[in-house]
Amino acid sequence: MSQHTVSSTSSARRGSESPLALTPRPAPRPVQRALFGDCVPIPYRWLRATDSPEVARHFAAENAHTDARTAHLAPLREELCALVDDPASRLELSAPVLLDGWWYIDRFAPDGTATLSRVRDREGLRSPSGIPRIEPDRLLDGEEILVADCLSMMGFAVSSDHRLLARAEAALGGCRLIITDAATGEVVDRAVGGAGPDIVFSADSRSLLHTRLDDLGRRHQVRSHRLGTSADEDVLLLEESDHWAQLELARSRDGSALMIHSLSPQGSEAWLCDLSAVDTPPRPVTGRLTDARPARLEHAGDRLLVIHEDRDTLRTVLSEIGLDTTGGLPDMSALLTAEEDEHFESVEAFADVIALQLRGGGVPRLRLIPRRADGSLDLQAAHTVGRGGTLDSVRLEPVPAWGTRRIRYRLDSFLTPGMLLEHDLDTGESTELLREDIAGFDPTQYVERRLWATSTDGTQVPISLLARQDTPRDGTAPALLYGHGAFGVSTEPKLRPEARALVDRGVVLAIAHVRGGGEMGPQWHQQGRGLHKQNSFADLLACADHLVDTGWAAADRIGAAGDGAGALLVAGAANLAPERFRAILTGGPLVDPLETLLDPNVMLTLEEWAEWGDPAADEATYRSQRAYSPAENIRGTEYPAVFAWTALDGMDVPSACAAIWVAQLRARVTSDPDERPVLLRATPTPGSAGDPRVEGVAWLLEQLGAVTLGE
Length: 711
Hints:
This protein is of the alpha+beta class. It is built from 13 helices and 38 strands. The N and C termini lie close together (about 5 Å). Residues about 1-15 have low confidence and may be disordered.
């Protein structure tokens, strides 16, 4: 493959007028932030007043500047848009699901619309793969549309006799619960508002159990609503007073019970509710557990399965307890303990098998364990489904039938278009049901690898890597390092159009699975959150060094990218070692986290407070964030080029974060602004016309000298 370098200083491409003359330079208006004896000037806090005409003019000026600096990239943007906007790339992998003789069907259209329908199972309906063959824009004989527009549907439930359908529709203040006659579409009840998305029918289909939201949007109550009555008459079954906790509902597959979980950063609790007596208080099963790693329970018909953490080894364990357990977990012997590089995430029970979702070496795996006639587990017959590839991500798909003999799962990797498969418990064989259609993709032309970088404290950090087979491995190739590293979120290697756009131009694509994410289990998350956030930055820099040391990347051609908290990761790492990166691409960047957490006008979720801590109440948290906040720690030296995009409305991260960071960069860094520009793109909303992500990728390709497709 030949490398093609395109200079960002080409005046012929940008026109005769220098765009540097258009560079917005907002005037600093220093105010003092005084907290815990620390007095800090905050020169651009005024940009947080995003409703003011003055700030609106500033964002308009930023857009004009970005237009001028990127106009010559229009042909490349159009080329990338054609790839990313391919209708086939937007379709969801979804196959009909069989429950009690009914096939329930999610239909997705290229324009983003979706419907929910159903059809009775009958002879001749199934294709050779064992499911009905779905054709776009053509209903099956007898197929009924249950919900014509699913875009605002946050959750749904079907009554045990399949006569009623309940759906939770997004609305102001929470969901509106709408119950319809499935056959006629007639609305039976719509009395309940302010609800969460969790809804479950009682055994007799006369009541609907649901969660209720408080003023903070927290699911703090479980209520039972009798159909046809006023919501004021709902029976309060349970209320969670811990303001850090949220309630979740899960119906057992055998239809007998409702599991209620309370989950918070401080602990957990679980209750069991008999669905044949829904007006009686739920029975406490676990009592209040204060472990950082919450225990998760699964109803397995005649017993309860528990995933918990061993206090001594910190490994996850699968155990079981009696169905009648009340008030606290008894001493539990382990049925199965995770290996050193494993972590159990969840378990789902069926009549004849349990499906254990786990992570091995940081990658999702699915293990099936048969159940004997007495319901016990045949651990010797346990087996893992999927092909076993190094980066194969295997995830259990929804299978609602208790007595099913077929388990569905999804398989993805960098080299595998998304596949939906079904594993037959009788034959032990997996059948492919659906596959993403990726035109012109030849996996033999690419290579994927799992690498391990060594962080500053000796921790081994996984890297998922994708490149073309003909990409040189002599330390000359450009590379893009992507990371997130927060909220326990795991980033799986998947084949995406954006990935192909990069690697087909000779860029090595690497995902840094740094601490703060969930790839290696809850301890991995704990080691990169709160007061330990610096570990995330060290891990990312170690991954960049490893790419160079192993010949995968040129030291002067590495880009870094992240969205939201991932932008905090790459920007924080750039502050520590700006020489590591040639360019940085960020979306909705949380790059002014300390000021954001201290801003009373920013509505933060419980999850966000738990992730970052409260700098106003805790001095250690304040000083930690003060030390790593990207906008407050920019040094007077050369920095990477920067492209940041944000939306003025409708994003979790305030748009002011990006504006303040960009202003601070322009005021502090010594880089040549022509060679290494600092750009900001602001759209009205995340879904506005034009895709800033595509624009950012085009800009990044130019910065890395990889505009042209490899030959």
